[in-house]
Every structure is written in structure tokens, then in C-alpha cells.
């Protein structure tokens, strides 16, 4: 099957100017499927064939896992299980964490879990009760006249490596105001983190978690969902869910004292903010 897929890739690349990523990396599964779909259409072939190719790729790359999944709200009692998942995957896989070699960081743990009390975050759970994916959300309100300016995230951060990441977030906040783009909204739902167990990637779990987040926003009269993506792959997931880019900062352009601070491995080349309007009930 790998040879058959690679033949598709080689043939399609030969009839277009697009370079298709290696299909041997399971982390690139969704990206490759999307690009194959585009290329099949350009080549005059039936685009529907890509679903069969992707299905076979999933069978080839995914280990045998429990596929009986349910999506439910995360409560504060799930905190330790959520952190266990994040420590095994997100803390290691997120491009900026990887670049700075973050390691253990209690401040990142608090950052990840501080909004769980809102019950706007969701988990994917297998039949054994194990959390295999999460989306962590929190509501952000529009500042009102007379409000004190918010404290910069980096100013409150003692961990030197995580402080670099928080300083980047502060820089984005200083240079981009979402309420200027959407003057009619007074709050938005901020999707802070999406993480999926590597054994379960390629099964659409991130999309299911995002769908449930959209349902929450709809039911709670929240008109906009916002996500800041430091990873190319997370941004691609959101684009497939019809999120649109409203801000981009290439890592090469973020410099402190004239020096580039972050240079994660490609294809992670920029911080991107994507948003989606929600039809409220």
C-alpha cells in the first residue's frame, strides 16, 4: 500500500508544481490527503478517489486502537487526566515547546487548565475511559472603558523558557486587536489548545472536538471562535473547519534585540490567528 500511495504522490507531483509531503509520516496524513485531493482535481481525475487512498493510508499508518469514542465536557475533576495527556503529547509536540526544549513547566500546566471551570472544553474518551484528545477553550471579554490594562503574560512568568513563548503572545496582543476587526462582538471563545494522542491521529478527533466547541458557542450566544496556531498542522485542521486567517506573524519577523527568537522545524513558519463566525440560536 505504501508503494501504491507513493506512486500516486510521484505521479501527481510530476503533473503539477506542488510538492507533496512524504506519506510515510502519519503526522502528515491529513495534510497529504488534502493535497492529494487538490492534485487529483487538477489532473482531471475523480477527486472522490482520494477518500479511498486516505482510508487505505489510515489503515496502513494507524495502530490497532479502541475506536469506540465519545465526546463530553471536561470538568475540573478531569484536570490530572488532561495534564497527563498534554505532558505526553502537546508539551512535547508543540513546535515552540520543542524548539526551546521546554521540559517540565508548572506555569504551562496552569495556563492550560485555568479555564476548565467554565465547562467549555471537551475531551474524546475511548471505551476504557481514557482521554485520547482534548480541546481547551476559554471565554475572553472585550475590555471596557476604565478597565486596568491587563498584565503582560511574560511579566508574571518565572520559567525562563516559557517566558519567551509568553513574550511572543504579548507581542501578538500588542499588534493585533480582534475587537477592531469584529466591532459588533463583546466576547469570543478562545480555543487555546488542541491535542490528540498520537495513536488516534488521522481519525478526525480534532474535527469532532471543534464541532462540539462550535455547538457550545452557538448555544451560549457566542458569535466568534478564535484560535492562535503556532503549529502548521493545527492551522490546517482549523482551515478545514472553515476558519479564516485574520493575522499572521512569520517567526522570521519576530525578533528581540535584532535576533530571531524562534526557528522551529518546517513546515511551522508562522504564528497564525484564525477565526470563525458562529450563527447563534
From TrEMBL:
GO molecular function: aralkylamine N-acetyltransferase activity
CDD domains from the UniProt entry: NAT_SF
Catalysis performed (reactions): serotonin + (9Z)-octadecenoyl-CoA = N-(9Z-octadecenoyl)-serotonin + CoA + H(+); serotonin + acetyl-CoA = N-acetylserotonin + CoA + H(+); serotonin + hexadecanoyl-CoA = N-hexadecanoyl-serotonin + CoA + H(+); dopamine + acetyl-CoA = N-acetyldopamine + CoA + H(+)
InterPro entries registered for this protein in UniProt: Acyl_CoA_acyltransferase (IPR016181)
Keyword Transmembrane helix in annotation: no
Keywords attached to this entry: Acyltransferase, Transferase
Top-level EC class as recorded in UniProt: transferase
Gene3D superfamilies recorded: 3.40.630.30
Family per record: Belongs to the acetyltransferase family. AANAT subfamily.
Protein name: aralkylamine N-acetyltransferase
UniProt organism field: Anopheles darlingi (Mosquito)
